[in-house]
Amino acid sequence: MKSFDYARADSAEAAVADGGSEGTKFIAGGTNLLDLMKLQVETPARLIDISRLDLASVEATEAGGLSIGALVPNADLAAHEVVRRDYPVLSRALLAGASGQLRNKASTGGNLLQRTRCYYFYDTTSACNKRAPGSGCAAIGGFNRIMAVLGTSDQCIATHPSDMAVAMAALEATVVTLKADGDRRRIALADFHRLPGDTPHIETVLEPGELITHVELPPAPKGRQVYRKVRDRASYAFALVSIAGIVAVEDGRIASAALAFGGLAHKPWRDPAVEAALVGHTPGDAAFAVAADALLADARGFGSNDFKIPLARRTLIATLRELTA
Amino acid sequence: MSDVNSLTMDRPVEDSILNHTVQDVLGKPIDRVEGPLKVAGKATYSAEFGFDRLAHGFLVRAPQGAGRIEAIEADAAKAVPGVIDVIHDFDGFIRNAQQGGETEAPTMGVREVHYVGQPVAIVVAESFEAAREGAALVTVRMSAGDGDFGIEGREDEAEKPADGMIPAHSDAGDLDKAMADAAATVDAFWTTPSQNSAAIEPHVSIAEWQGDRLTVHGAYQMLSSDRQQLADALGLEEEQVRIVARYVGGGFGSKLGIAPECVAAAIAAKQLGRPVKTVMTRQQVFEATVRRSDTHQRLRLAADGDGRLTGIGHETIVSNLEGEDFFEPAGLATHFLYAGANRRVTHDIVRVNRTLSGSMRAPGEAVGMLALENAMDELAEALDIDPVELRRINEPEQDPSKDIPFSSRKLAECLDEGAAAFGWEQRNRTPGGLRDGDWLVGHGVAASARSNLLQPSRARVSVTPEGRAIVETDMTDIGTGSYTILGQIAAEMLGLPIEAVEVRLGDTDFPPAAGSGGSWGAGSSGSSVYLACEALRAKIAASFDAEADGLTLKDGHAIAGNRRVPLGELVGEGIEAEGAIEPGEMAEKVNQASYGAHFCEVHVHAVTGEVRVKRWTGVFAAGRILNEKTARSQCIGGIVFGIGTALTEELVHDERDGKCVNRDLAEYHVPVHADVPHMDIRFLVERDAAANPLMAKGIGELGISGAGAAIVNAIYNATGVRVRSYPVTLDKLIDGLPPV
Amino acid sequence: MHFTINGQSFDVEPDIRTSLLDLLREHVGLTGTKKGCDHGQCGACTVLVNGRRINSCLTLAVMHQDDEVTTIEGLGTPDDLHPLQAAFVRHDGFQCGYCTPGQICSAVGMLDEAAKGWPSHVSESLDDGALTDEEIRERMSGNLCRCSAYPNIVDAIREVADGARDERRVGEEAAA
Question: Which residue, among B55, B40, B49, has the nearest Cα to B86 in the 3D structure?
Answer without folding.
Answer: B55
